[in-house]
Description:
Layout lengths: L17 H21 L15 H6 L2 H19 L7 H28 L5 H8 L9 H4 L7 H20 L7 H22 L5 E3 L2 E5 H9 L1 H19 L8 H14 L5 H4 L5 H17 L8 H8 L1 H18 L7 H34 L6 H8 L17
Antiparallel strand pairs: 1-2
Helix pairs in contact: 1-3, 1-14, 1-15, 3-7, 3-10, 3-13, 4-7, 4-15, 4-16, 7-10, 8-9, 8-10, 10-13, 11-13, 15-16, 16-17
Amino acid sequence: MSTDRMSATSRSRVIRLNTLTGLRFPAAFVVFLYHAALLGYLGLPWLSPENVHDYYRSVHHAGALGVSFFFVLSGFVLTWSARETDTATRFWRRRFLKIVPNYLVVWVLAMVVFAAPRTDMKIGVLNFFMLQVYYPDFSVNFGVNPAGWSLAVEAVFYLSFPLMLGLIKKIPANRINLWIAIAGLGIIATPFLSTHLVPAGSVFMPMEPETSVNQYFVSYILPFPRALDFVLGILVARSVMSGRWRNIGMVWAGALLVASYVLGYFTPYIYSSRAVCVIPAAILIAAGAIADEEGRFTVFRNRVTVWLGDISFAFYLVHFTVLVGVWKLLGSKTYSAPQAAAMLLISLGVSILASWALYSWIERPITRRWSNPRKRPAQARREADGAEPLPLVAGRAGEVP
């Protein structure tokens, strides 16, 4: 890729990264499949390590892949769409209105559907205020809505993004890829250091006996180590924008991601859940952005996939509550494989409908109306829909190739 292709002149047009929007739903869907395995819908003898069902093994690090993908994607997209005239306060306002209303609505739904009888006040309050990721206790980390913990981590990313971006913009373009390598090594080192430096404590879960709660908490849940994923996304976006990224295309990037997922079956869980798939995910994200930039065809850039991507945030938040709710309505039993497949299809359909409702009635109206109330309504609507992102201009602040 030539350095002048991504110059300020060529990037002056407005671009929405629809391929990356389309990739959001598959990332959320693999988390859905993982959570279904945890709930035992396919006859999984939960908490019985000597007889683990094949379904769990097939998806046992799929949820981690989806979460890592979202963390890297957040850093990439926020950098791509950052506004030169923006302020930290305005950015935080938009992020707050984007994530908090949906988060709190689903918190209430989860409490009503299943969480209230098993949630004490401490767990409920910590999860309500997105503080659950600072305690090495799974009943706190995954309390109320188990999917909500990653939003608590994202909140740290959003709070630090203006500072992170300001520092990374000072890196000369010819050193961006070096820093990408450093961030990648840091991600790989995180589970290694956690395993060797953090006291083991109790076992993470019987089905993953080689991983302890404390080590998993430091490597996977604690926001500060996970910030490396977010930083990787920022760095890769800057590399693409400055013309320094070596693109391998979406087909090869997708194949690399699949290969890394398969590799995860042969690595300890703390590595497969944290480090194995992160860098391939970043490569795929960059390939998707470049495909959109160049106007090339991708299977993820069409009306259906983009719509699913638009509702994917709501889907990610609400799917666990739907899975439990459907299971309870159907009798709270263990299913045979055909019954479980039908139940999963029902739960998927209900989750999509619930996500559409959250997006249409909560997320979209709030962001349109309040993300920047001083703008004219039509302009605010277009920006809330992602139609007018103002990309950072490459070739400034030390980025001249």
